[in-house]
Amino acid sequence: MSSEYSFIDRNWQFIKGDQARPLVEKFSDRPYLQGDRGIVRVPRDRWHVAQDAEANAWMNLWQGNVQDRNLDHFIMFDKYKPLADRRYEHAIELGCGPFSNLSFVGMACQVARCSLLDPLIQSYVSHPNCTYRGSHLVNNVVGEAPQIPIVERIASPIEDMPTDRRYDLVVMINVIEHCFDVDLIFDRIATILAPGGMFCFHDKYFSTEEIEHDLTYTYDAGHPLKVEMNALEAFLTRDYVPRFRRTISTEPGYDSLYFIGERR
Ligand SMILES: C[S@@+](CC[C@H](N)C(=O)[O-])C[C@H]1O[C@@H](n2cnc3c(N)ncnc32)[C@H](O)[C@@H]1O
Q1: Is the CB–ligand 1 distance for residue 174 below 6 Å?
Q2: Ligand 1: which of 171, 175, 183 to mutate, most ligand atoms within 8 Å of CB?
Q3: What is the pLDDT of residues 167-199, one digit of tens each?
Q4: What's the confidence (pLDDT) of residue 57?
Q5: CA dihedral in degrees (53, 231, 82, 124; nearest 10)?
Q6: Which of 114, 115, 118 to mutate to test the pocket of ligand 1 (most atoms within 8 A of CB)?
Q7: Is residue 13 part of a domain?
Q8: E-assigned strands of 25-90?
Q9: At 202, which CATH number?
């Protein structure tokens, strides 16, 4: 873990070293730290700053991108084989971004139809390489991936999503750090996922020391939440029987978790 200060604002202005220190201290997310659970909730205005950064990234800076490491996730999830040999009637991807991971999932199993949720989904349909502009979800990377009929595009954070629908597969990859209330999120997912349904989840796997280090040396406008690994495990153990798990070091100093569980 580097002890150099680093500050990234909502416009992706990146400042390092001594110049960054007063900014890190001024904008720090430390007031939101909840003991050893990490940062599991931030006020909505802090979340809006993060969403400005996200919109700016995809709709201005990264217009040429065709994926968001979706192929890497496919490989790290063992090509989604733990979901194979089954037909899913209605899947949803939460925080789908402009590209989504569901069409990669559809290479391992049958997905009859899907819904896609992202607070920025109405903007993302204007991204030049968005995969869900038409009636079917497509794949920019793997030509032969199946095209999945789209039922609904939901422009909402998970925390505010409708809970009257039921799904048999929920995918949430690389989203938690961007959100504003982890307790609400895991409650929502447990509600919408039918018993026996599958939850496919990937995100950072922070230790208390890493969170403490980040809060001291960094401010990253786009990533307000930092859920400590035991807090994350508590949600997963409460609601799911594990069917696949892998932890790996993806970046210096960080582990990440790949998890597939069956709703209890
Ligand atoms: C790093 S992108 C990942 C996109 C996609 N999951 C992927 O792997 O390609 C994170 C996404 O989470 C979305 N997001 C932020 N806050 C959210 C929330 N509270 N509920 C659902 N999605 C959220 C952002 O708009 C953004 O599109």
Answers
A1: yes
A2: 175
A3: 999 999 999 999 999 999 999 999 999 999 999
A4: 97
A5: -20
A6: 118
A7: no
A8: 38-39, 87-88
A9: 3.40.50.150
